[in-house]
Design brief:
Blueprint (H helix, E strand, L loop, with lengths): L3 H6 L4 E2 H5 L5 H10 L12 E2 L1 E11 L9 E4 L8 E6 L14 E5 L13 E2 L4 E2 L8 E3 L5 E4 L8 E7 L2 E8 L10
Antiparallel strand pairs: 1-2, 3-12, 4-5, 5-6, 7-8, 8-9, 9-10, 11-12
Bound molecules: FE2/S2 (inorganic) cluster.
């Protein structure tokens, strides 16, 4: 059955379901960034989601990352709404890099109304949240999928690349809160 929302946005979009199907496939996420540098969409599993290729920025090193100790960084700019977190989850995650495919990065802004998720990583459940505003919680092992709360859109995931020991942010999957488009 054809996804009508995918038809409406053409080749710039890919359904979140299709993206989720690429769990753990770094190459796939990077390819999606190459193939679908498009617009923002996406509220549920079948809605299209934007994959934006953005300027490469070094955000950390594999050797200094400690499991379940999130490292804050700003991406793609230093604007206060661009706060993000880099974290080694200790278990395989969608889009995860490193030997265990467990290094991921996400926006630190809730997709509901932009509540800050700083300091709200839960190591036991590998989630960000609950957001202090309306309690949304995002699963960081599953591309930031909403597991509870008011948000209807997954947490914006940062595309990553590892070059030797260095970790780079290279783009975004989904729309940053407060923006009509990424970059
Ligand atoms: S702003 Fe985070 S749940 Fe509303």
């Amino acid at each position: 059955m054809t996804d009508p929302s995918a038809e409406s946005c053409g080749s710039d979009c890919v359904s979140r379901r299709l993206f989720l199907a690429s769990t753990g496939a770094v190459t796939a996420t990077l390819l999606l960034g190459e193939i679908f540098p498009g617009r923002v969409h996406g509220q549920n599993a079948d809605a299209p989601v934007e994959v934006s290729k953005l300027p490469r920025k070094k955000i950390g090193q594999v050797s200094t990352l400690e499991q379940d100790r999130p490292v804050p960084f700003d991406y793609p700019t230093d604007h206060y709404l661009n706060n993000c977190l880099l974290v080694k989850l200790g278990e395989k995650a969608g889009g995860g890099l490193g030997e265990a495919q467990d290094i991921v990065a996400f926006s630190g802004r809730c997709t509901h109304m932009g509540g800050s998720l700083d300091g709200l990583y839960n190591a036991e459940h590998k989630v960000a949240g609950p957001c202090a505003e309306h309690l949304t919680t995002f699963d960081l092992t599953r591309h930031g999928m909403v597991v509870a709360g008011h948000a209807t859109q997954a947490l914006t995931q940062v595309l990553l690349e590892v070059d030797g020991d260095d970790i780079y942010a290279t783009g975004l999957v989904g729309l940053l809160y407060g923006y009509s488009r990424n970059g």
